Every structure is written in C-alpha cells, then in structure tokens.
Amino acid sequence: MHGAEAIVINCNFLSTPAVAKQRLPKAYRVEPLDSKLRKERTKLEAKIMHRAKSTGTLCPLVLNVDLDKCELIQTRLDGEKLVSYLEKNSNDADAAVLQNAGVQLAKLHLAGISHGDSTTSNFMVMGGGAVAVFDFGLSQFDASLEEQAIDLLLFSKSVSQQQFKHFTKGYGKERGKKETQKLLTQVAEIQSRARYVER
Predict the structure, then answer these.
(1) Is the confidence at residue 199, as pLDDT, over 50?
(2) How far apart are the first and last CA of the chain?
(3) Residues forming beta bridges with residue 165, ordered by sequence position
(4) Beta strands 123-125 and 80-81: pairing type?
(5) Which of 90, 66, 81, 59 is nearest to 13 (CA)?
(6) CA triplet 191, 161, 141: central angle to 5 degrees?
(7) Kind and range of the H or E element at 4?
(8) What is the average per-residue pLDDT within 128-151?
(9) Widest CA span of the chain, in angstroms?
(10) How high is the pLDDT of residue 195?
(11) Residues 6+ apart with CB under 8 A from 198
C-alpha cells in the first residue's frame, strides 16, 4: 500500500508474517533535514508501539527498525478492519466489538499515548471479537486532555451516534467514569470551537 507518508507492504521476517513500513523522502524538504525527520519519526513510532504493547494494548509487535532505510517491521494483524466489519454486521454484533475498541483506546491513553488518527480504519477486528489498534504514524507521547479528546472526536466522526455510545461504554470501563466524562466534555468543547470557526 502506497500512502502519503510511507509504503506499507506485507512480508515475512524470520519466518513471521509481518508488515514493513518505509517512510518516503519528501522532495520539497532539503535532503539532510528530510532524512533526519524521517529517522526521528520512525524511531518515535517504534518507541510508541513498544510502550503500547508493554502496557497491555492489543497492537502489532515491533520486530525490527532500520533507521538508515527509515523502515519499521511489525507483526501482521490477522483480521478485518473495523470500518469494513461495521458495514457487514448488525447493531447487536457490533456492540461488543465497539466496546472492545473503546477499551483499547483507553489503554493507549492510560499509557500516555495519543493515537492521532483513531478512526475505524485503524482498528482491526480479530478472532473472538478482539480488537487491536494499529498505524501509529501520527501518534505522540501526549496524555493531555485536548489530544486524547481529539482521539475520541476522530472516532465519533467515523461511526454513528449509537455506535459511539458503545465505544465510549467500553472506554469508560477501562478508563473510569469520571475521566471519560471529562474527555467527553472536552470533545463537546472542541466541537463548539469548530462550529464557531465555521460561522
């Protein structure tokens, strides 16, 4: 897959099904600066994934990092993207899966990480309804209320209102009712700012 920031391809690493992600050079940036930024971003993404994995988030495992190539190799997730899963399944079937997705984002936030692109395209539904989160290309070590609320807002924009309720139910089970409510209040604040700008 060829994205704006990177090429992502399936591969095998030491006989393990894997995914290789290589950050592409940017022609509009001066080469030494471009190389430095791509190496830093690759290193940061690997550190974030390691933190997420070590604190219990279901996500790919980093297998290898090659900074000279700006390449990160990670285990391949076996499943279906949440966006596709929701298109095929009924409300009853998707409620538990959405709650599981909420749990995973809450675990990420408790680890001090904001995902940065937390839409249904970056959650994978696996066997038994387990849900993993992936693509940490825009993630940061950031536990601020604002950034974590943005993660919730991004997810809310990719699902229906009822589906978001299922998601926040799961999120709240992991994060706690008080903290979840604080974040939802911040989501509403961000939305009100956006509406003001649109006027």
Answers:
(1) no
(2) 38
(3) none
(4) antiparallel
(5) 66
(6) 55
(7) none
(8) 96
(9) 56
(10) 61
(11) none
Q: Decide if 117 is catalytic.
A: yes
What letter does residue 56 receive in the DSSP assignment?
T
Of the listed 34, 94, 117, 142, which one is catalytic? Answer: 117
Look at the chain and count its residues. 199
Both tokens of 90, joined, read 């009924």
Instruction: Please name which of 176, 159, 177, 178 lies closest in space to residue 86, comparing C-alpha atoms.
Output: 159
94-112 average pLDDT score: 96
List the Cα angle 66/70/71 in 5-degree steps.
60
Question: Which residue is it, tokens 């095929």?
Answer: 88
Strand order in the sheet with 6-13: 6-13, 16-23, 71-75, 62-66
How much is the pLDDT for 121?
96
Residue carrying structure tokens 């139910």: 169
What are 40-92's pLDDT values in tens digits? 999 999 999 999 999 999 999 999 999 999 999 999 999 999 999 998 876 66
Distance between CA atoms of residues 45 and 42, nearest Å: 5
